[in-house]
Design a protein that fits this description.
- By secondary structure, the chain is an alpha+beta fold.
- Among the domains are: about 110-125 and about 145-180; about 190-265, SH3 type barrels, CATH 2.30.30.
- The chain contains seven helices and nine strands; from the N terminus they run αβααβααααβββββββ.
- The strands form two sheets. Strands 3, 4, 5, 6, 7, 8 and 9 form a seven-stranded antiparallel β-sheet that branches.
């Protein structure tokens, strides 16, 4: 589901969950979100608690942790961009068309459309609409539908679930083959890669932090010198070693004042620089 909103403040998030989720589908057991301030605000946390919802925030700057939602977001953006290309200013008026297209399209992983898995039938689209038959036995039609819901729909969902598991396992195998696994120990000093600031020819790191807890699936709890904690995936961390290649920089206002910020100077030879000289400063 998707809805255009004026802002993404905590109150707006709660209103969306109540009117679009709870009202139509009941109270969810668990909600997975990123670490946006609207999802972690005190009023939002109280909302989760009052409805007995388990809230699971993902690790910082780790889109893969909520991969299904991120993929759907990209699909929705691409579909919406194509549909409203001639009227971009009013993109919010085309959300329903985009959702209709996505819900009626066959999914590559399951081999079925989302509508087929949810309702047991395909959605009626403008291109496939047919008028009602002249004589319809309503009672018989209801019996057939109930019978299908009790038997056929469950089989259909199981089939889609099995196909989806196979697809996920294949994707995971491909991903794992490319990923470099990081193993840190308790007490290790590490730097965290910054995804906020981008620099040409260099990578920016924040820290140092201390590993205080080893989590699941490559996640680590890190602590700065002021006792602040964060959960970060291992591919955003590296061992902190003082060396000539780690050049301290002025702390940004977006960072904790107790943290140092580093730019790793890559050993690259640029045209015009004397041989052996390193590029120590790049204007922002």
């Amino acid at each position: 589901m998707a809805k255009a909103v004026e802002n993404i403040q905590a109150e707006t998030v709660i209103s969306f969950l109540l009117t679009e989720v709870v009202q139509n589908f009941g109270v969810p057991e668990q909600i997975i979100t990123d670490r946006g301030s609207n999802f972690l605000a005190e009023i939002t946390l109280k909302f989760y608690k009052n409805l007995d919802i388990i809230h699971t925030p993902t690790t910082t700057y780790r889109q893969q942790a909520n991969g299904q939602v991120e993929r759907l977001n990209q699909t929705l953006k691409r579909t919406l961009a194509k549909i409203c290309i001639e009227n971009i200013e009013n993109w919010d008026c085309y959300i329903w068309k985009s959702l209709l297209a996505i819900r009626s399209m066959k999914n590559k992983s399951t081999g079925l459309s989302p509508a087929k898995l949810l309702y047991g039938v395909e959605l009626t689209l403008p291109s496939s609409w047919k008028g009602p038959e002249s004589e319809v036995n309503i009672g018989k039609a209801i019996e057939e539908l109930l019978s299908y819901i009790n038997t056929g729909l469950e089989e259909l969902r199981n089939s889609g679930y099995e196909r989806n598991i196979i697809s996920k396992n294949n994707s995971a195998a491909i991903y794992d083959a490319k990923v470099v696994k990081h193993q840190f120990k308790l007490g290790d000093k590490v730097l965290r890669h910054s995804d906020v600031l981008k620099y040409k020819f260099s990578a920016t790191w924040e820290g140092p932090f201390t590993i205080t807890r080893l989590g699941n699936k490559g996640a680590y709890t890190i602590m700065d010198s002021s006792g602040n904690f964060d959960i970060v995936h291992g591919d955003k961390l590296k061992i902190y070693r003082e060396s000539n290649r780690m050049i301290p920089e002025v702390s940004s206002s977006t960072l904790n004042s107790t943290l140092k910020k580093f730019r790793e100077v890559n050993n690259i030879q640029l045209e015009g620089l004397p041989k052996g000289r390193r590029l120590l400063h790049i204007p922002k």
